[in-house]
Amino acid sequence: MAIKYFNTHDGSILTDKTDAGQEAVNQGRAIAINCPDNIEDWRLKANLTTSQVIVYGGVEKNEAQAQLQRTADSAAVALANKEKSDLLLAIMEKAEEDRKALQATYNNSGDA
Amino acid sequence: MARLLNLLQQKIDHRKEGLPLYGFLGDSGDGNTHWQFRIFDSGHKIVGNPWGGTGHSTTHHRFGICADAMHSYSTNDFGTDVTHGDLTSQAYNSWTIWNRSNYQTDQYPWAQYYTLSRAGDITWQSYHNITESFEFTVGWTKLNHVLPEGIRPRRLFCNRRQTLRELNPGNNSSGQIGYYNYSSHMLNVSNTYAVSTGYNESTKTLVMVHSSGETSETAKTIHIFKSSKDLNSVRTIKEYFDNLTATEYFTDTWTTGNNKDWVTVVGNNGYVGFGCAYGNSMRYGVFNCNTGLSLGITGAARQFSTWQDFQGSTTTRYMSDQGNQYYTKFNHTWDGTWGMIHTPYYYYGPGLNAFCMSLENPRKFISVSQTKTSRSNPYFAWGRTGFHGGWSDNCDGDTFRTYSFAFDPNDSDHTVTTKVLHGQAAAASLVGTTNDTNIASASSIQSGSVITNATGVFGIPASRTYLHGGYYSTNYPGMFQVNWWGNFGPNDMAFGGVRN
């Protein structure tokens, strides 16, 4: 285990250097957390509520496995976003069709 | 009348630009349904005329405007997805995604993949030959310039072996403007490969690092040339060297992964910062390059303090060893008072590992860290004395943000801490929301940090711009480098007063 320092603004990792990290802690810019060994820094993030470290992919995964998981997670988010986007687009197109139909009805009603 | 005379006698530098702008692209992902391009200033106010297109056909409006054959819908060469792709660990050949790389931009007004006018006209270069283009092969030979307020390099000098060349600025293979072999002016020619060169326009000082090779060789000879002529004003390079007023050198042994990564920052006070990517980390050292002080010909006699390793978090990050285009970059603030030697944090593009230093006094420096590993954007000069960029997360239902930070232009004393001002990550005001907040001391600055010189590190929070992303649903906006921010003028007085 080793102490690492995390930004208080978003829980992202700041440094593993004691001097720089402790200065940030003293100023309220960082918190210090004991972290498991042999985990790449990019996989570490602080839970600012519990002051516990979150390891992306879990400690049992190695970096390659964690990257695979992130690729899958990223694709899942992108797909969910696309589905939402397509749904919104379909709703807007339907609304436009309804508006045109309403306009046509209105135009044919003789009131135009 | 006196004021009029003063005005007439004032020398106008036509290179001087207004405050930094950036291009902002939002689209629907397929590039066919919706595409919007806007230009914003440093206050995130729109300038110029936005343009865009919507449609559901394969003959999209955008291709006509941009002549963009690279990302077109049906006749695509390299995919349609200019902004929605997620840059994580990909290299340059993930073409559309690598638009987002931290390696795209530096102090020069163009990017590696495109050029963008102030009017918002963007054109990408042909990816078909990009691996042999200037930045991909010898961009690392460009000079690192320290320039007056509001000026970016407008002449392109490249130094390799013992020849200084001048080229037409940009990424191209058009004919050279000129060249000069300066070896007859060197006092020591034991190392013949120029690997890094810095120039300070106000002191007309050129500092070159020569090594015994262009890979990981450690031997170094550092030459300091001072001239009565400004390199950026001479008609030929020879003119600069014909008018040298001082030449000194020193030798040293510097270890790094690849010599192409060295960046040379010539401070106004004669101290020079040398920095580079080093493994997954970076290193930075400062040497006294003032002439006429009998400082000697060894690095040890001239070095200020010791080599400083980057103090932020590091992880796998690539550099020149993986390809010439991944060389360590140099950028500077609009007012030319602060510089930044930077690489990404992660692989080939996301995040930021940087040393920021006072260009008045490079002995004043700190580490700056941003540890994003995906959804990134490049970093640009921002406002009067700052930088921003680095964020491209989904703006669907949220405001667009940048990682912005700024320095004090008069803060150049390396014996005191450095104040860094930043924005708010949460939806909050920069000015105290209660009426009892005064900025009384360095430790109580609102939205700022106080960083110890050399060994301190600043982690950048994201700042809300309150801009929407340019598309009503999923969008991951792209930030782009503008090649001319416009003539300096009345609108630029908004930054808080003319410094000089």
Largest sheet of chain B, in brief, is: 5 strands, mixed
Note the overall shape of chain A.
Answer: elongated
Percent of residues in beta strands of chain B:
25-35%
Radius of gyration of chain A: 25 Å
Widest sheet, order of strands of chain A? 2-1-3
The helical percent of chain A reads 40-55%
**Structure summary, number of beta strands of chain A:** 5
User: Major sheet of chain B: order of its strands?
Assistant: 6-10-11-12-13
Largest sheet of chain A: 3 strands, antiparallel
Q: Tell me the distance between the termini of chain B.
A: 22 Å
Q: Kindly, what is the distance between the CA atoms of the first and last residues of chain A, rounded to a whole number of angstroms?
A: 78 Å
| Count of DSSP-assigned helices of chain B | 5
Mean pLDDT of chain A: 92
pLDDT under 50 segments of chain A (min length 5)? none
Overall structural class of chain A, as computed from helix and strand content, comes to alpha+beta
Q: Would you report the number of β strands of chain B?
A: 30
Low-pLDDT regions of chain B: 440-444
Average pLDDT number of chain B: 90
Structural class of chain B: mainly beta
What overall geometry of chain B do the principal axes of the alpha carbons give? globular
What would you note in describing this structure?
The complex is a heterodimer of chains A (about 110) and B (about 500). Chain A is α+β, with helices and mostly antiparallel strands. Chain A has two domains: about 55 residues, no CATH class; about 50 residues. Helices cover about 50% and strands about 20% of the residues of chain A. Chain A contains two helices and five strands; from the N terminus they run ββαβββα. In chain A, strands 2-1-3 form a three-stranded antiparallel sheet, with helices on one face. Chain A starts with a strand and ends with a helix. In chain A, about 25% of the residues are buried. Chain B is mostly beta strands and about 500 residues long. Chain B has one domain. Chain B contains five helices and 30 strands. In chain B, the strands form eight sheets. In chain B, strands 6-10-11-12-13 form a five-stranded mixed sheet. Chain B has a five-stranded mixed sheet with strand order 18-19-20-21-28, with no helix packed on it. In chain B, strands 22-23-25-26-27 form a five-stranded antiparallel sheet, with no helix packed on it. Chain B is globular, with a radius of gyration of 22 Å. The two termini of chain B are about 20 Å apart. In chain B, about 55% of the residues are buried.
